[in-house]
Amino acid sequence: MKFATRAIHVGQEADEATGATIVPIYQTSTYTQDAVGSHKGFDYSRTVNPTRVALEAQLASLENAQHGSAFASGMAATAAVLNTLAMGDHVVVTDDLYGGTYRLFSRVLTRYGLEFTYVDMADLAAVRAAIRPNTKMFWIETPTNPLLKLIDIAAICSLRTAGQIVVVDNTFASPYFQSPLALGADIVVHSTTKYIGGHSDVIGGVAITSNDDLHESIKFHQNAVGGVPSPHDAWLTMRGAKTLALRMRQHAENAQRIAEFLEAHAEVERVFYPGLPSHPQHALAKRQMSGFAGMVSFTLRGPMERALTFAPKLQYFSLAESLGGVESLICHPARMTHGSIPKEDRERRGVTDGLLRLSVGIEDADDLIADLTSALESL
Ligand code: P1T
Q1: First-to-final CA distance of the chain
Q2: How far apart are CA 346 and CA 350, in angstroms?
Q3: Distance CA 97, CA 338 (A)
Q4: S-S: 328 plus which of 203, 227, 317, 334, CB 3.0-4.6 Å?
Q5: What is the pTM assigned to this prediction?
């Protein structure tokens, strides 16, 4: 079964009880048992819920994997994967990553005795040098948020030794354009809030793997810690994911046009988009991804404050956090999504006050370019 078919059919069988074609929202916390311990496989909705089970099957199939575990947010999915580690374990992490992931690692999980080293994972020698005897995990985000750097997933997997796992946050590429498990990764994480949900109306996350032991461990923590999505949120995410293939093609087509437009504009200093031949890792992007998705970052010429005045001038790009919805957004990472990273660290990694990040939606690209043109002209 091909991707677009799986998105619509896997986990989506007609409801056994009623024949409902669309998986119902099983808005129940509990299930009536015939006798103690005698039930239909469902006992309590933190542990298992039919709507969530359907979503988990659908999302696992999008990564060609055996197992999925859905969570109430991308951060809850990330935390559950980190929960599989033990005190004293060490993680090698991409240095350019979502500010909330950095905050979870640096301000929460270090208090539980986990250790993190942030490196530019494009530099394999730096990754190798960061490995310690207690290294248990490599945490990759690719393309990275917000600088759209590429990490070579297969190359990082080749550094892994027994007892170590590679986890990829695949949020920016979506499963439509990148398959980390096929490149050797052990676990894929998504903020389903983004492309998978696709309509900026629901927060969610998922952890996907084909490794039975890792799945057991993530499932155990999903139930023990309890960061599960509501049945309604699971249903909304599932509905969004059905159109992922169609949406991603349009996101990528629009983003490519916008990246090329910005790169040619006199007011624009630099554009970061893996689909541009000028991207330093364009060759890797072409090898590792089947398309370049919809995120474009850029800097303007002149003083950095121009970034702050530019964003509100746009009509169709809402000034907002998040990404991956059908509507276009613009964000100022230093003050918004990456504000939780100390200024010095942030700037060292290239997330300057002059950086702007676009989540290119699926509106007509002509309208989006006209909007950007008039905002650039009015600077
Ligand atoms: O917001 P939540 O669903 O908890 O997902 C967190 C998350 C995880 N991974 C990546 C790569 C992300 O970009 C995010 C959330 N990011 C934003 C809200 C943002 O605007 O970048």
Answers
A1: 50
A2: 7
A3: 9
A4: 317
A5: 0.98
**Domain 244-378: assigned CATH number:** 3.90.1150.10
Please state, in angstroms and rounded to a whole number, the distance separating the CA atoms of residues 362 and 358.
Answer: 12
Positions in the chain whose pLDDT score sits under 50 = none
- pLDDT score, position 171: 98
Q: Which residues line ligand 1 (CB under 6 A)?
A: 73-75, 98, 100-101, 141, 145, 169, 171-172, 191, 193, 203, 205, 321-323, 337
CA distance 180 to 210: 12
**Domain 3-241 class in CATH:** alpha beta
For ligand 1, the distance from its centroid to the CA atom of residue 282, given in whole angstroms, is 24
Closest CA to ligand 1's atom 2: 74
Tell me, what's the pLDDT at 284?
Answer: 98
277/2 Cα distance (integer angstroms): 29
Calculated CA dihedral for residues 114, 157, 348, 318, nearest 10 degrees: -100
d(CA 269, CA 281): 19
167 residue type, one letter: V
Whether the ω angle into residue 143 lies within 30 degrees of 0, i.e. cis, is: yes
Q: What is the mean pLDDT of the chain?
A: 97
> What is the number of the ligand 1 atom nearest to the C-alpha of 192?
3
Query: How does pLDDT run across 318-358, given as a tens digit for each residue?
Result: 999 999 999 999 999 999 999 988 999 899 989 999 999 99
* Cα-to-centroid distance, 278 and ligand 1 (Å): 27
pLDDT digits (tens, 9 = 90+) for 109-149: 999 999 999 999 999 999 999 999 999 999 999 999 999 99
**Distance (Å) from CA 192 to ligand 1 centroid:** 9
Question: Domain residue spans in the chain?
Answer: 3-241, 244-378
